[in-house]
Amino acid sequence: MSNNRGALQSKSVRESMVFCGVDVSAATLAVAAQQSDVAGWAQREFANSPCGHRQLMGWLLKRGSRVRVTLEATGVYSLDLALRLDEAEGFEAAVLNPKKANDFARSLARSKTDATDAVALAEYSRRMEFVPWRRPSRNVLELRALGRHLSGLTEEHTRLSNRLHAAEASRTAPRCVLEDLKRTLAGVRKRQLRLRRAAREMIAREAQMERRLQQLLAMPGIAETSAVQILAELAGLPEGMTVRQWVAHSGLDPAHATSGTSVRRPSRISRQGNRHLRRALFMPALTASRFDPHLRAFYLQLLARQKTKLQALTAVARKMLHAIYGCFKTNTRYDGAKLFQAIKIA
Fold first, then answer.
1. How far apart are CA 1 and CA 178, in angstroms?
2. Phi, psi of 92 (to 5 degrees)
3. What is the C-alpha to C-alpha distance for residues 284 and 153, in angstroms, rounded to an integer?
4. How does strand 66-72 pair with strand 91-96?
């Protein structure tokens, strides 16, 4: 009789669904899990390492053969775990925007700890519509990492250029400082060139990415570095996304704050999306607002409506993202006349 009871319990464990939440940090994984037919939460902490990932997955499979895992998108810290879960049989992984995960967690509890965040993510797996994470190709993942590193080098180059300009304008900066800044700048330029070449080689491996890179380069304001960075952030997005989802992914969608007649705060962009994509679009938007007649007319029209320069530039960046979406979907080159049919060019 006891053997039969044990067999039934073992079968129940194998067939039950497990809902799991993982709060990811650089060193550890705080985990909360609940079986679909069992009350209460089981909680553990594992190392955020290959060994810790194996231990986590083994611990979850003891509770059921089907596991739904929700975790936040925390860059490289969550990516390796998401890849490992995607490779394993019996696991589904959802990777949430941190803002979305935080808003859901606040609706459940006021306290915020790694343990409560893990429980909130597990509750999300159980209660909300579960959209499995789609694994990008290795080439796309490598291009994204390279594009973000190139973006960091570009920021470093700008800082060094500003420091050199200030030093050259100063009467107290010694010659050795000026020479060192010039050597460092030259080294950064060489690294940028080497990385751009590597990026072009990665892009050339896939015909679609090469075609899209050429479409980006044909747009006003987008030079090679910006084109690589934009493509690196867009290449991994699912093909079925709409242009509104692209805008929301970038965090360039407007966030309104109104309530009745008493609360009417100025609208702002949500900033709940991909900050790397927003940064990659900023300089092209600034350049295009000066030199492309259609985007400049749009920019000046916004200024005439009492928008600030930053608000107008943000709107230009959003319009450029719309244009990129249209070019990619229709496989055509940029045409400002189609994008701004109602705006008169001065």
1. 86
2. -125, 135
3. 17
4. parallel
Residues 6 or more apart whose Cβ sits within 8 Å of residue 36:
16, 17, 18, 19, 64
Q: How far apart are CA 93 and CA 246, in angstroms?
A: 21
E strands within 48-135?
Answer: 66-72, 91-96
- What are phi and psi for residue 89, nearest 5 degrees? -75, 140
Q: What is the pLDDT of residues 165-222, one digit of tens each?
A: 999 999 999 999 999 999 999 999 999 999 999 999 999 999 999 999 999 999 999 9
How many of the other CB atoms lie within 10 Å of CB of 29? 24
Structure token digits, residue 298: 């749009």
> For residues 80 and 48, what is the distance between their CA atoms, to the nearest angstrom?
9
User: Please, how many CA atoms are within 13 Å of residue 82, restricted to the half-sphere of its CB?
Assistant: 22
Q: Is the dihedral of CA 295, 297, 302, 303 positive or negative?
A: positive
pLDDT (tens digit, 9 = 90+) per residue, 78-135? 889 999 999 999 999 998 877 777 778 777 766 678 788 888 898 888 888 888 888 8
- How does DSSP classify residue 22? E
In 10 A of CB 261, how many CB atoms? 6
Distance from C-alpha of 115 to C-alpha of 28, rounded to nearest angstrom: 12
Q: Which residues contact 204 (CB under 8 A, 6 or more apart)?
A: 210
For the record, the structure tokens of 305 come out as: 């409506």
Global pTM value? 0.78
CA 286 to chain centre: 22
Is residue 154 within 8 Å of 178, Cβ to Cβ? no
> What amino acid occupies position 156?
E
